[in-house]
Design a protein that fits this description.
The complex is a heterodimer of chains A (120) and B (110). Chain A is globular. Chain A has 120 residues and is mainly β. Chain B has 110 residues and is mostly beta strands. In chain B, strands 1, 3, 4, 7, 8 and 9 form a 6-stranded mixed β-sheet that branches. In chain B, strands 2-6-5 form a 3-stranded antiparallel β-sheet, with no helix packed on it. Chain B is globular and about 40 Å long. Chain B starts with 8 loop residues before the first strand and ends with a strand. Classes of the chains: A mainly beta (120), B mainly beta (110). The interface between A and B is medium-sized, with 24 and 25 residues.
Chain lengths: 120, 110
């Protein structure tokens, strides 16, 4: 059974750097074709894809956010980490990680999500 | 990359069929058959319902179907049931090697 779970701070102040961890089970990021993405959902429910990391350490980022994002993996711990710099109140959202289809273009399953609120 | 365009809401009575549209551009929906649809109930994570325009993952009812014409994809739910009431989102891979989502459609089962 494939599961993913996000963890990170619930509350941040503007300009801080966010670090989120996705801990998964049921698959390995060292297996050819495996990929994991981060997606966020604003309080208004808009979904936004943020970043993807592949089994071979290829990385892809949202065009609008790429200067602020870094994605990495720790295969031995079954974890994917996303950092986002210079957090702003507009970054308040529920952040999800999701397995991205092997050589495919869908997200399944998703983690339960973690709400990050940015406020001064 | 602009969001895909979905109607804000649709509704239908039990047993009826509804269709949700998802309009993109020639840089996403129109160029790839990589449209997927997600169902989200309140307080829950999105769930994959359709991938690659019209394929259903294992365990998804055949009441859910997808199609595409030019820059517009569609999700059809037939035989509406109360449990189908949820938010639905489309997504497409893009020529920039990124993904774009629709704004979401709230389905109300009357």
């Amino acid at each position: 059974q494939v599961t993913l779970k996000e963890s990170g701070p619930a509350l941040m102040t503007p300009t801080q750097t966010l670090t989120l961890t996705c801990t998964f089970s049921g698959f390995s990021l060292s297996t050819r074709g495996v990929r994991v993405s981060w997606i966020r959902q604003s309080p208004g429910k808009t979904l936004e894809w943020l970043a993807r990391i592949d089994w071979d350490d290829d990385k892809f980022y949202s065009t609008s956010l790429k200067t602020r994002l870094t994605i990495s993996k720790d295969t031995s711990k079954n974890q994917v980490v996303l950092t986002m710099t210079n957090m702003d109140p507009v970054d308040t959202a529920t952040y999800y990680c999701a397995r991205t289809g092997d050589y495919a273009y869908w997200f399944d399953p998703w983690g339960q999500g973690t709400l990050v609120t940015v406020s001064s | 990359q602009s969001a895909l365009t979905q109607p804000a809401s649709v509704s239908g009575s039990p047993g009826q069929s509804i269709t949700i549209s998802c309009t993109g551009t020639s840089s996403d929906v129109g160029v790839y058959n990589y449209v997927s649809w997600y169902q989200q109930h309140p307080g829950k994570a999105p769930k994959l319902m359709i991938y690659d325009v019209s394929k259903r993952p294992s365990g998804i009812s055949n009441r859910f179907s997808g199609s595409k014409s030019a820059n517009t994809a569609s999700l059809t739910i037939s035989g509406l049931q109360a449990e189908d009431e949820a938010d639905y989102y489309c997504s497409s891979y893009t020529t920039s090697s990124t993904w774009v989502f629709g704004g979401g459609t709230k389905l109300t089962v009357l």
